[in-house]
Structure formats: C-alpha cells, structure tokens
Amino acid sequence: MNDQQIKKVIVLNLAFWAVAIAFPFFTRILPTGSGSSPKIFEVLVPLFQLMLAGGATYLVKSALGKQK
C-alpha cells in the first residue's frame, strides 16, 4: 500500500469511530411524543456502536491484509 491509500484507510477508520462516538448524542436530541427517548434506544444504540466498531476493525484488517 502506498501512503495515499494508508491515509484513506486511516481517515475512514476515524470517520467510523467519530460516528460511533457521536451517535448516542444525536439519539438523545431526537424529538419524541413523550419527551423521553424510547426504551428501544437503550438496545439499539450500543448495538449500532458495536457494528460501527466491527466495521472499522474489518476495514483496518482488510487494508493490512492487502499490504503484503
């Protein structure tokens, strides 16, 4: 891999993590009828964060695998 490809992988990995970190804050500001966040968010938010972390890990793993 050249430097340009490595930078793209790093930026995309950081984007995955930025979205994973910011996602709970965005779900808290969503308007709901009752004024409180739905109970399903307590399950979906961590699940979505784990999926983003898994995607970021897979991206780095595949990029490092192509390096050889």
Short description:
With 68 residues, the chain is an all-alpha fold. The protein has 2 helices and no strands.
Verbal overview:
By secondary structure, this protein is an all-alpha fold. The chain has 2 helices and no strands. The protein has helices spanning 3-28, 41-67.
Secondary structural class: mainly alpha
User: What composes the largest sheet?
Assistant: none
Secondary structure tally: strands = 0
Question: What count of helical segments does DSSP give?
Answer: 2
Helix content: over 70%
In one word, what is the shape?
A: elongated
Mean pLDDT: 81
The first-to-last residue Cα distance is 8 Å
Strand content: under 5%
Helix and strand layout, with pairings?
Elements: H1 3-28, H2 41-67
Helix pairs in contact: 1-2
Can you give keywords for this protein?
single chain, 0% strand, mainly alpha, 68 residues, elongated
